[in-house]
Write a structure and sequence with these properties.
474 residues; 24 helices; two-stranded antiparallel ribbon
């Protein structure tokens, strides 16, 4: 295969950026409904043409695409299950119960602060930001909306906490992957991450606390109306919390996410039949409960759009779910992103683009900055947080050794830059997923994901200031 000129290797990226910019201008938040997917496919075609021109055979391109899509198969299954879980947890009264009790417990002024803390604890215990956002996160979003808070700010608080916990949990896959790529052990990696991660999260909490006291919330009268509408439309009882407790327990016990979410979905359906027969009758337009009505109601909630009508119009917008159907746009986006990433990788275009970047890093500060930038670059181009850790990890391992830097410097930078920024990119698997799960556009919550925005700057700042830059055998 002939060496590809750098400017030629850059063409698919330039083409993609131009198309995505046009999409944002023309479609706004609706760009995820098809335009961005097609932009990724067209950019993949440009990359494929370049690859073929420089000696890559067609079969190799297809194999690269297949391998890339295969890598996100678990994520696609999880997305479908999250869609079905949100449906059964809605009709069973689980999410309404969380909103009902949350409105009474959570002080509006500290709601954002508390949301970040709650999601951080759950994510730390489970090791999964995805599961945390899909369960506790959805409930907190509903509570925050009922309080009259901006959805972007609520989403930012939920995601900041969830990614802090995910990043620091020994159960997290990315937390295990980063030290493996860098050549250090798990607990050394976690210990070294604390130096940048805890200050970043502390700053984020302070900002959320300040925002909470400056934000106007619904009056107690509005909240009382919402509570009344919930209690009249659903059988609200603490027993409903058994289902999320079971799901969190399963994840803590290291049961994989797919069976855990499936169990949570099925339990939600069973609880809907037991506790909310009136809701089942409402969504099936039936007058009498039967086995067939129960089956139809649960299946409808798992697979398609569900809207629960109450006496409160403000509340009705919260009590809706798209089921598995609501996840199809996101799955379409992920598949297109992985087609683009797979072709960019198999043609060698990603490696061609990244090689000169390594040569630029001369000082410790420059090396860490280059590593962080490369992680973000791969999140943008390969559309996958794992590739944003694996590829830069392989690229920079020798550079860190040559400069006498301990491998935990590299593993920390990979997490501070790769893991946390993936959720900020609409066409990345993480950004697409969390946007779909929360029902909040990526660019809407992005400005408020303070932890995710501060983390890369923190790790770069430490490197330039020489703070906690550990040397080999030091």
């Amino acid at each position: 295969m002939k060496k590809i000129p750098y400017i030629i290797a850059l063409l698919p990226i330039i083409f993609l950026i131009i198309l995505l910019s046009i999409n944002v201008y023309l479609y706004g938040d609706n760009s995820l409904g098809g335009p961005n997917q097609l932009s990724l496919l067209l950019s993949a075609a440009v990359a494929g043409i370049i690859g073929i021109k420089y000696g890559v055979i067609w079969k190799k391109l297809i194999d690269g695409v297949s391998s890339s899509i295969k890598s996100v198969t678990p994520a696609i299954i999880i997305l479908l299950l999250i869609g079905s879980l949100s449906g059964t947890w809605l009709i069973s009264g689980i999410v309404p119960a969380m909103i009902y009790y949350g409105l009474q417990i959570l002080n509006p002024e500290i709601f954002l602060f508390a949301s970040a803390i709650i999601t951080a604890i759950v994510s730390l215990a489970t090791g999964s930001s995805w599961s945390t956002i899909a369960t506790i996160g959805i409930a907190l979003l509903g509570i925050g909306q009922a309080l009259g808070l901006n959805v972007g700010v609520i989403g930012g608080a939920i995601i900041s906490g969830a990614y802090f916990g995910d990043k620091m949990s020994p159960l997290s896959d990315t937390t295990n992957l980063a030290p493996a790529m860098a050549g250090t052990d798990l607990f050394t990696h976690i210990k070294y991450m604390m130096y940048t991660t805890i200050p970043s999260f502390t700053i984020s909490l302070v900002i959320f606390l300040i925002l909470g006291f400056q934000t106007e919330v619904n009056s107690s009268q509005n909240i009382d109306e919402i509570l009344s509408a919930l209690s009249s439309s659903f059988n609200i009882t603490p027993w409903l919390f058994l289902v999320p407790v079971v799901v969190i327990f399963l994840i803590v016990k290291k049961v994989p996410a797919i069976p855990s979410l499936l169990i949570g979905t099925l339990l939600g359906g069973i609880f809907a039949i037991i506790f909310q027969p009136n809701t089942i009758l409402e969504i099936t337009d039936s007058s009498k409960m039967s086995i067939f009505n129960a089956y139809e109601g649960v299946i409808n909630s798992m697979g398609s759009d569900i809207n629960i009508e109450t006496s409160n119009k403000e509340l009705n917008s919260l009590l809706s779910s798209g089921g598995m159907y609501g996840m199809l746009n996101t799955i379409w986006l992920i598949i297109c992103a992985m087609i683009f990433g797979g072709i960019m990788e198999v043609t060698g275009l990603l490696r061609r683009l990244s090689t000169p970047i390594v040569d630029v890093a001369k000082t410790n500060g420059n090396l860490v900055t280059t590593t962080a930038g490369t992680c973000i670059f791969f999140n943008l181009t390969a559309s996958d947080q794992y590739l944003s850790i694996v590829v830069p990890g392989r690229m920079f391992a020798e550079s860190y050794k040559d400069k006498g830097l301990a491998p935990e410097n590299l593993s920390r930078t990979l997490e501070d830059s790769g893991t946390v920024t993936s959720v900020l990119i609409p066409w990345n698997t993480c950004g697409a997923t969390q946007s779909a799960v929360l029902g909040v556009a990526t660019f809407t919550y992005l400005p408020y994901c303070f932890f995710n925005l501060i983390s890369p700057m923190m790790t770069i700042g430490y490197a330039y200031l020489g703070i906690k830059v550990k040397k080999i055998n030091n």
